[in-house]
Write a structure and sequence with these properties.
With about 475 residues, this protein is α/β, with parallel strands linked by helices. Helix content is about 35%, strand content about 20%. The protein folds into two domains: about 300 residues, Metal-dependent hydrolases (TIM Barrel, Alpha-Beta Barrel); about 50 residues, no CATH class. It starts with a strand and ends with a helix.
């Protein structure tokens, strides 16, 4: 017997950009959508006698395709510092924590992700675990480690340290090394290749010929390829090399936009990381100068995106999830809000970008991203109207139902509220202890009239590492007992 799910009486946004249809039903058979429309709830004569139908009342709610995130780094571990991202936490534990985190992503209404690079081949393992039903997570495609040069993103450390095997990137400084690395990654099961050009796009870490050689190699091996490209010259090289989609594109000249539009290559701006650091940074102590820099880059990106949309460039949705500023399962849908604010999209256009259009980054056989007969049944039911307020999609409590491959998902929200970050950087002390900082600059020596009061070691937890503070407090208590 086939399994059936009937979502009844909601307002359907099908993801194609078509106007919403109120009082509409969606009938799912197995992992595919069987019917959509006001009459789809009339199952007599459609559902064979004896087949069980799971019914979901969507009256007063919105029914739409699950969101797709083209830029979700499953193995970044909500990193706070570069060393945490690259060095701390074993690859075995990185894999387990990544498996935990992708369930959070699915709970937020994201039913498809593409992982553009990370530690080891953790992404490949997570993808396979999801496909085999070992892990509860969204449909997924993945790259391996970023391919970088000595001047590109992910070669962070002094030359004496190099690029460790645990890094999110791998170093290749010649065309032959780049081609060899792609062959190695394809052998190990990646879906796509990720090139890491310069961090801010103010110069080109790869030559156009190098990028073309990597693109040709990936395509010859039937894999897709993308690139971190923030500047105009970087995007020009990516277009000329015929990459499959391009990440960022923050500052683009008019002639670059024209070539990008003509190429039909999608652009994934990934605004969330910039937006969260610029706007929410004060909550976690991000310095004002840093926040201002991100805000300025957002404004530059807004100008580029408006021109790109006018020229006909397809904008797809990605978030750079995986940093402490973009934790798993928290802010994926905020990218739609930022596309409305900075790219000038309507909420309906933003939903199309985050569903129908972003489906291009998934396996071509996934056939998802729209509520149409024959499409893959990845559906969410939303308690609210995202066309009236696109921000309702950010509240997980309002994602009342998540259906993946035709199966209604069950979650334990209390358990998923826990966080599983990677090991913290091994700080010895959070700031410099100078004479003046201890004695307030009054010049009194130890034991003199100006001697500072002995601090309670637990006060350290307010500004520093709470785990270390607790350990120090325990040691102090033990010493007091033996004194």
């Amino acid at each position: 017997m086939a399994s059936w799910v009937l979502i009844e009486g909601g307002t359907v946004i099908d993801g194609t950009g078509a106007a919403p249809v109120p009082g509409c039903s969606v009938l799912v058979r197995g992992d595919r959508i069987e019917a959509v429309g006001p009459d789809a709830g009339a199952t007599e004569g459609v559902v064979p006698r004896g087949d069980e139908v799971t019914r979901i009342d969507a009256a007063g709610k919105t029914v739409m395709p699950g969101l797709i995130d083209a830029h979700c780094h499953t193995s970044f571990g909500e990193t706070r510092m570069q060393e945490e991202q690259d060095l701390y936490t074993s690859h075995e534990l990185r894999t387990l924590r990544s498996a935990w985190n992708v369930t959070k992503v699915l709970r937020s209404g994201v039913t498809g992700i593409s992982d553009p690079g990370g530690s080891y081949f953790v992404g490949v393992g997570i993808r396979e675990g999801i496909a085999e039903g070992l892990i509860q997570g969204p449909k997924m495609t993945t790259a391996g480690r970023f391919i970088t040069t000595s001047n590109g993103i992910s070669d962070w450390y002094p030359s004496s340290v190099g690029v460790p095997d645990s890094s999110i990137g791998t170093l290749a400084n010649t065309t032959d090394e780049m081609v060899t690395e792609i062959r190695h990654q394809v052998k190990n099961g990646v879906d796509l290749i990720k090139i890491g050009d310069s961090l801010l796009g103010d110069f080109e870490a790869f030559s156009p010929d190098e990028i073309k050689a990597m693109s040709d190699t990936a395509h010859r091996l039937n894999k897709r390829i993308t690139m971190h490209a923030r500047g105009s010259n970087n995007v020009d090289s990516a277009v000329a090399a015929e990459l499959d989609w391009i990440m960022h594109g923050n500052t683009l000249r008019d002639d670059t936009i024209e070539r990008l539009a003509e190429s039909k290559i999608p652009l994934c701006p990934a605004l969330l990381l910039l937006g969260n650091l610029a706007e929410f940074g004060p909550a976690v102590g991000v310095p004002m100068a840093t926040r201002d820099a991100y805000a300025g880059l957002l404004e530059d990106t807004a100008e580029s995106l408006h021109k790109a949309r006018q020229a006909g460039v397809t904008i797809i949705c990605g978030t750079d999830t995986g940093f402490a500023a973009t934790p798993y399962g928290e802010w994926h849908a905020r990218e739609l809000e930022l596309l409305v604010r900075y790219a000038g999209m309507t909420p309906l256009e933003a939903i199309k970008a985050a569903t129908h259009d972003t489906a291009v980054v998934l396996d071509p056989g996934a056939d998802t991203g729209a509520l149409q007969p024959g499409k893959g049944a990845d559906v969410i039911v939303v308690d609210g109207d995202p066309l009236a307020d696109i921000r309702v999609l950010q509240d997980k409590r309002r994602i009342s139902t998540v259906i993946l491959r035709g199966e209604v998902q069950r979650f334990d929200d209390e358990v998923l509220a826990q966080r599983r970050p990677y090991e913290q950087a091994q700080h010895i002390c959070p700031d410099i202890i100078t004479y003046d900082s201890v004695y307030n600059g009054d010049g009194a020596g130890a034991g003199g009239a100006g001697t500072a009061e002995q601090p309670d070691v637990r006060d350290f937890a307010a500004d520093g590492d709470k785990e270390l503070a607790a350990e120090l407090a325990d040691r102090a208590a033990a010493l007091a007992e033996t004194a």
